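Researcher: Go.
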Amino acid sequence: MTKVIDRYVESTNQIVVLCDCTPPRSGDPEALDRVAVVEADYVCVAYNPGKLPRVNSVIAAHIIRERTGRDVVFNIATRDMNKLAMQSQLLGAQMMKLQNVIALQGDGFTDTETERVKAVEDFTPTGLIAALSAMNEGLDYRGSKMRGTTDFCIGATLDLERDLVREVKLAQRKIKAGAHFFITQPIYDLNLRQRFLDEYEIQIGITFPAPVFWGLQILDKEGIMLGNVPPEIRQQLDSGRPGSEIASKLLQSYVAADVRGVYLVPPILRGGARDYDAAQQVLESV
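Model: Structure:
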């Protein structure tokens, strides 16, 4: 399996695409085959989206790779496991030769949900990134030597719709902790990307040093929309323009702006189903 940063460095004249994937709410491995239609560089397996029980992201990533031959990335969230459980799961991922991982927090539980389930959050996302980096050096969460090292390519998240000054500082902390690459929430205006890069250079004094996979969601009028969707795009959807056509246009603007990494989010239909055919259609348009 190829590490994300290695593929990014090698693909100097091509966009590298991570395609988001929702694990199924059943133990049927055939449910994971549908993502094979997407000819992305990596299938990026989400961690319990919707805060619902789904197939573990590590197991799902392994099965996708075995059944489809696709390279994979798995997400892991700090919300649900303590440090011991988290690192045990990560050692299992290492045993299955899964190297690409994205550390994130996971959506918070509402007051009503906490009557049924509690968040753990033994790590912060930045703390988990540092722990992954330490595991690559052969140390566990206690600082004790493990019997061997891991070889994780560590991803982190950016949310450009939050205060950019704060987000730059957080991104810098994640880089210092050991993050190798980043993904962003979907964006609909590339000016936002440039404002973040400019703010980073102003604050830190250097250009952003890590590969970024900029979020691009394929919208569906009846589906779940992520990020701050501009009114004009909502109007286009309401008037009947296909979300795949809008996304293709956005992706073409990414290409024109020399964007080299894309985090592609297929349409999220009600109930959590994904339209992977639409994702492939968008990729074929460029």
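Model: The radius of gyration is 18 Å.
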